[in-house]
């Protein structure tokens, strides 16, 4: 077997059917084995440019307007017909609808037709190319992948222009694995699941809407394969491993056998987790661990509840500020927080104040122009510089806290003086609400994200001032190891299990325990099953994660006992490199991890050299 896509670039389509491994991005977990069904490449590839006579121009603009109306009707139909499990995701279609009428899309296309006297298809292509170029430079993965949404809207308008039905998916007669350049969220939502076992795409990433929908529908998917459509032919035999992001073309007998076993184990583990998901996460010796979910939009609450989460450990509130032209009002924020609190009550919701700035920008909020946005004017720094933004948000949180179990969490805290400033702002807000006789509850717990190394080092001082710590390991690891969390080229250096990270976690835990305050974690490390023993051993019993991982981490907790975890933590703290820690975990816990999360972490089928092993 070749060990990467690049090694097989020279192969022609008529080459012998050799086993070939393509690496992509894990989109939606699960394994499937079946024949390929190749979809056509969409309409946007074949667009040509035509010049129009002056008298044809207005007709062309009308043709575009009609097409947009038809596309809007199609989106309304999709929202209405969305299956039950996709109800929470229909905001994606609403976003597409808004994009259709956005100035930078709708207005720009009409402007191009009028100014350049060109056909609408060409004006559409030119506008979308320009928007995509701007998006592709954005560092934030979520925002970058919104470029795909523009492409999907383009396809939709093209279909409406040509009167073409959405028939790409109509020809799938037998159960197969779909291989396509891209698939729009609209198409993904309409997949006939009895015909589609898995999805392999050349484009797309972890945060694309198509990925979100595939996960919701529980269809295994691999994104960003780059050249699957070039290498795979209709009816080729494929193994798709959505957990590790692999596509194996023309697998050998042995590979098929191994994957048969892995598929069986994965499905058995899934079934067990579905059965046990709602049970509490108790260690073998009876310690109750709270397993919560991180959310970004209101709709995510359902995911947390469905997977048996014990509440919301991190509400990233910035998304309410991002996809709009003006800042949200106190009333809007209050409504949103209240809805979330009521939905999940009596379980708690930790609402994090705005973590905008740097690469996450919004209208009406000044963005840092610095070269290092992660170190720039972001999060609490930005809010303290623009206190009105913080005041509006705090007022909304205090008011919503009357309706449920809320906690406040401040991001990017690096020094105690920031807490003094926050206290002043908070007092002002409370005085105003009292004066106006507006009901509110400011007696809620306040905590800080420990995600800047200075806060971890000064944990004993911070512990005297707040009710809880929540460890943000995504940033803490980034800043401690000086590894950009968004940079693919140094992704291998981004290590949760690094000795420096372990020592900082211990320092924070010791300070938190000594002061008797709450100790939580909401960075991705909390959802990494191989980190669970270390975290429990250090005293982190309140873990919040991507909702997908809730059942997995619950299962892992059930395999643990506290004295065992404490011994593991002691051992890890003595090790000197991340390699040694990884090896130790593999030796000590490889079997448990394989049982809890087959094919998921280390010890999966691909050992990194391209040889697939069970
Ligand atoms: C973190 O930094 O670990 C965290 C949870 O916050 P975010 O990923 O939103 O920066
Ligand atoms: Mg962070």
Structure description:
The protein is of the alpha/beta class and 614 residues long. It has three domains: 4-41 and 167-254, Phosphohistidine domain (Glucose Oxidase, domain 1), CATH 3.50.30.10; 44-162, Orthogonal Bundle (Enzyme I, Chain A, domain 2); 281-596, TIM Barrel (Alpha-Beta Barrel), CATH 3.20.20. Strands 1-8-7-3-4-5-6-2 form an eight-stranded mixed β-sheet. An eight-stranded parallel β-barrel has the order 10-11-12-13-14-15-16-17, surrounded by four helices. The model is unreliable at 1-15 and 601-614 (pLDDT under 50). The chain binds phosphoenolpyruvate and magnesium ion.
What is the assigned CATH homologous superfamily of the largest domain? Phosphoenolpyruvate-binding domains
The separation of the N and C termini measures 15 Å
Tally of helical segments? 24
Number of strands: 17
Catalogue the ligands: phosphoenolpyruvate, magnesium ion
Helix content: 40-55%
**Main β-sheet, spatial strand arrangement:** 1-8-7-3-4-5-6-2
Largest sheet: 8 strands, mixed
Strand content: 5-15%
